[in-house]
Amino acid sequence: MANRPAAGGGVWVDVGPQRFARWCEGFARRHGGALSRPPRLVADDAACAGQALELAAADGSTATCCVPFPPLAVAADTGLIDALIAHTSAVRIVGVVLVRRGGFAVGRFEGDRLQEWKVGARHVQGRTKAGGWSQQRFARRREGQAREAYAAAADNAARILLPHVGRLDALVLGGDTGAISALRADQRLKALWSKETAPFLNVGDPKMSDLRTAPEAFRAIRIRLVEAAQPAQPPRSSSSSAESSSADGGRPPGAVGAPWQDPS
């Protein structure tokens, strides 16, 4: 997934648990060769809206790693990076509900295996440029078609997820926030909302491929990377190049060692 700008500076990077240790090593190597202090656990980080693991590099760069499925419990003899990898890789039962006007996808995962699912598409009337009564008629039709799509999503969320709500570790939502708001009004699903966790998955009209790849997103460690500012290097002028050539004994460009001498 491409890096995304982060509010307040830096970028968001998503890293899977199987790559996280290597990513941390690379972060330290690229930013001064080492961490400036041991990793620390932050209970309530503003960027993550919750628990986070914070890394600080020797050059001043920082990496704030949001903890998926908080809280993170750490044993006394386990390092924080290893603890976060083990925590994120644990097998959990996760419900996924993706909804937009044009369709829905509902699934129940155990680990990264999709156990039960339903994907549906709904035709929603396109917008019209006509005015007056025609525009109002099309608007009412669109609203009716959207309600049908939301109702189908709610029916399948109730069928697939509610029987397992006691065992459900988390609920991940995605699609369109307005569509999700419509589902929240369905009293049948009230027991699910207490399981809701980040991230919110941004997808188009949900398809089976979006559902199958959902674990890559909800098990990823979201990292806010803020790199230290690098001092600007002034451009070399032609006069400084000439001075350099004179000072180094007239060596041809790229030559090393003793000053070049004319063999004649």
Features:
264 residues, alpha+beta, Nucleotidyltransferase, domain 5, 2 domains, 10 strands, 31% helix, 23% strand, elongated, disordered C terminus, Actinobacteria/chloroflexi VLRF1 release factor domain-containing protein, VLRF1
Question: Can you tell me the CATH topology of the largest domain?
Answer: Nucleotidyltransferase, domain 5
* CATH architecture classification name of the largest domain: 2-Layer Sandwich
Strand order in space, largest sheet: 1-2-10-5-4-3
Determine the structural class based on helices, strands and strand pairing: alpha+beta
Biggest sheet, in brief? 6 strands, antiparallel
Pfam family, one: acVLRF1
Domain Actinobacteria/chloroflexi VLRF1 release factor: 94-224
Biased composition (Low complexity): 227-247
Region (Disordered): 226-264
